[in-house]
């Protein structure tokens, strides 16, 4: 019994995580349902560190030092339950099962509660960064008990990405499903970020009239400023790429139907349940969905749109500058919405999540890694009770400064018939939060009229109902 940690499930993610542990000097027990994967891992990468391969679950578990730390990297869903059922009877109180798959946080809560009864710690852990991240340093979001983190944290921090200041991109997020919840919101924000970038591209292409190579250059320039991020960087790479078969820009030969694996949808479904507006993420999920509806798009292809007038070179340059502002302001809004969601879940489930620390561990390793996240970390460090990122002095000033350009971009997009659901939803959210009075007052009047749902008044406490069908006098309702 000598391995520090074990990994079962040795497809790309599990194999790379196991190698990452081994490369950091940890002895790693490795196991996979199909033993050929275990053998090939040791054959190909055995020289990178110390692996203890096992074919039988008993041998695998038996090779782990106590308390046992067993990482499960199998297909999310039923396979995870199957693996838990297989291994849990072999474990002892105090041992840990770490689920690094993309589990739904409610499944994680259920599994944690059930294993807790047996004294086994179940640590639902979000892992971001894809296969490269798993090997070279992912961003890691472990949930589960604080006690489990004491023993597990140092190992996970060891293999995690490091932020520019050297701190590990791994922290204990909170109990039970908190880690998987935060990973889900990470993916939701990733959807929103990608959608906003796609809209910026579409505007530069079809309103400013730039070719993909020039747009790649524009993104490269943006990447030296406040938008500096992994996603902007790879966007420039994709746009600069030429298709070998046709000689055309790569982006022009790819079918324009965006696919999804479902974490964005989970984020929006959960946000609806929590009652948190995440319009940026929702629009991003819907935009992918619209793109995939070939039937609807075909049926609507001949509908009329506005005439598009080409822009002058000077006008196009100025417009591109405005698009940078719109992209940045919209990005601030979608992050603000994502953080609100984490905060609401923290309250709902009693997780006590440190909101700043989430920004800190997303600075490296994950898909949305960006210089920008250090500013979010700083905003929550300055005021842990910040109700929204938009209330932070610096973000408020920047978004305020961007708003004229932001409005100009959205209205130009509308005038040119270029869809910008992300930009428009973000701006609408900003204006809704700012509004002195919202038409929700009228909505309440309508609800009271048709369903006697009652309303509150601006000048008095209590609930009221107007006798709409009678003499229209008002009655207190409670
Ligand atoms: P897959 O999701 O493709 O899963 C394959 C692995 O699951 C294999 O080891 C397979 O074993 C095992 N497995 C499937 N069903 C069972 C079962 N019933 N019992 C035991 N083992 C089973 O692998 P990935 O490496 O892509 O992902 C692993 C997990 O990590 C997933 O939950 C995924 O969502 C998550 N993840 C993936 C990322 C990525 O970029 N790919 C990023 C972050 C998280 P066998 O070889 O015997 O078939």
From TrEMBL:
Keywords: Gluconate utilization, NADP, Oxidoreductase, Pentose shunt. PANTHER family: 6-PHOSPHOGLUCONATE DEHYDROGENASE. Its EC number is 1.1.1.44. Catalyzes the oxidative decarboxylation of 6-phosphogluconate to ribulose 5-phosphate and CO(2), with concomitant reduction of NADP to NADPH. Pathway: Carbohydrate degradation; pentose phosphate pathway; D-ribulose 5-phosphate from D-glucose 6-phosphate (oxidative stage): step 3/3. SUPFAM superfamilies: 6-phosphogluconate dehydrogenase C-terminal domain-like, NAD(P)-binding Rossmann-fold domains. It comes from the Bacteria. Pfam families: 6PGD, NAD_binding_2. It catalyses: 6-phospho-D-gluconate + NADP(+) = D-ribulose 5-phosphate + CO2 + NADPH. Residues 179-469 form the 6-phosphogluconate dehydrogenase C-terminal domain. This is 6-phosphogluconate dehydrogenase, decarboxylating. Homodimer. GO terms for molecular function: phosphogluconate dehydrogenase (decarboxylating) activity. It comes from Streptomyces pathocidini. Gene3D superfamilies: 6-Phosphogluconate Dehydrogenase, domain 3 (1.20.5.320), N-(1-d-carboxylethyl)-l-norvaline Dehydrogenase, domain 2 (1.10.1040.10), NAD(P)-binding Rossmann-like Domain (3.40.50.720). The keyword Oxidoreductase applies. Belongs to the 6-phosphogluconate dehydrogenase family.
